[in-house]
Amino acid sequence: MAERLKVIRQQHELDEAVRKETASVLKKIPKRLFDTTTGILYSESTQKEKLPSLSGAFKSSAAYQKLQNCVESKAQAVTFSDVSRSVSHFYAYAMLSHRWGKDEPLLHHISSNVYTLSKPSGVGKLQWFCRTALAHKMRWAWSDTCCIDKSNSKDVQQSITSMFAWYRNSTVTLVCLPDVFKSTYDAIGMSEWFIRGWTLQELLAPRTIHFYKTDRAPFYADYRDFRKDSSMLETISRVTLIPRQYLTNFEPGMVNAKDKLRWMSFRETTVEVDKAYCLLGILGVIIPEAHAADSKWEAYARLMKEVSRKGHPDPAISEEDVNAVLNWLRHHTQRAKLDRGHLEQFVQSSQTPRSRYLFP
């Protein structure tokens, strides 16, 4: 009887450790992910969605069963470190980086197993991505086309402000390059992917990146990360103006902000205001109600306000870097040119709530 009670207590302790570690991991990863083994979309969103729960997925996994067997068989003690490793490994995920094409599937299209969908016409890329992520032994996969609820402003805002961290915390990022037809440095150096605004953080944030060509075959036959190729680093550095040391080891923040703005200066976004949003993770700040800004002027002004707050208390951040960011934002804000006094008044006021920072 005493032994049975001991097992029950250990099972309770295991479940409590799993609950805590799962909650901790889910704070750092996207709120919707595809299960690449089944093609089913899971969600941890607070919205009422008819999707299975991400937090509940671990307890139905073989990884959880293995921990449970150890408790029941008393073969070995299960430590919190064992639980932490098991949960973190289970929720490892891949991110997709790409240019949007025609008829990309949105969240409302995903009503069943993604592998069985035939519409919209752009679903083939999503299916390829999930299968390729699975081939990389990733149980989970995220695509911006259908893992964000575009009809929900809060969901869009959270996604925008979390994007850099999601790419940074991913195990691998798969980059789809439809304009790269062959595995040559000249070909990849001419890809449009390197001149788009959003893809700057998708180049700098991930720990591991794999490039895929027009035919969706890997750029490298051995699936290596581009950072292991000195010639590739030289090519990308040349076309993006980003020094090699930042390509291999980038840290977000206001330090060297002037350089970071230069990398963004020649990039393009479909929507003008996205130039402000693209900088959030790179500069390490979050602007409150980012996507709720009713004009590009207000979005830039909010970012200016947070740059001012972020820059002044930190001795590692030079006044030159802070001023460089503020001047860049003014340059990209037509209303600031016409009504600078109003802009300065907004920045110095307390109109917007204090933000939290992605990377303190």
Secondary-structure map with pairings?
Layout (H helix, E strand, L loop, with lengths): L1 H25 L5 E4 L4 E4 L10 H4 L4 H12 L6 H11 L2 E5 L25 H13 L4 E3 L10 H17 L2 E5 L8 H5 L9 H6 L4 E4 L17 H11 L3 H5 L8 H9 L8 H4 L2 H4 L12 H16 L7 H13 L2 H5 L1 H9 L12
Parallel strand pairs: 3-4, 3-5, 5-6
Antiparallel strand pairs: 1-2, 1-4
Question: Could you give a short description of this structure?
Answer:
This protein is α/β, with parallel strands linked by helices and 360 residues long. The chain is 47% helix and 7% strand.
Count of DSSP strands: 6
For the terminal residues, how far apart are their CA atoms?
Answer: 51 Å
* Estimated share of beta-strand residues: 5-15%
Task: Provide the low-confidence segments as ranges.
Answer: 339-360
Indicate the overall shape.
Answer: globular
Largest sheet: 6 strands, mixed
pLDDT averaged over residues: 82
- What is the ordering of alpha helices and beta strands? HEEHHHEHEHEHHEHHHHHHHHH
Structural class: alpha/beta
Strand order of the largest sheet: 2-1-4-3-5-6
Q: Helical proportion? A: 40-55%
Instruction: Evaluate the radius of gyration.
Output: 22 Å
**With helices defined by DSSP (H or I, 4 residues minimum), what is the helix count?**
17
Structure description:
- With 360 residues, the protein is an alpha/beta fold.
- Helices cover 47% and strands 7% of the residues.
- The protein has helices at 2-26, 54-57, 62-73, 80-90, 123-135, 153-169, 185-189, 199-204, 230-240, 244-248, 257-265, 274-277, 280-283, 296-311, 319-331, 334-338, 340-348, and strands at residues 32-35, 40-43, 93-97, 140-142, 172-176, 209-212.
- Strands 2-1-4-3-5-6 form a six-stranded mixed beta sheet.
- Strand 3, helix 5 (123-135) and strand 4 form a beta-alpha-beta unit.
- Helix 1 crosses helix 4, helix 14 runs antiparallel to helix 15 and helix 14 (296-311) crosses helix 17 (340-348).
- The protein is globular, with a radius of gyration of 22 Å.
- Residues 339-360 have low confidence and may be disordered.
